[in-house]
Amino acid sequence: MFPFFPAVFLCASSLVFRYRRASIEERQQLKWVAVACALLAVEIVVSEFVRVPDLLFALCLGAIPVSVGIAMLKYRLYDIDVIINRTLIYGLLTSILGLIYASLVVVLQRVTDAVAPRSDLAVAASTLAVAALFRPFEAAFRRSSMAASTGTSTTRRASWSVLRRACAMKSTSITFEGTSYP
Question: Which residue would you say has higher pLDDT here, 98 or 146?
Answer without folding.
Answer: 98
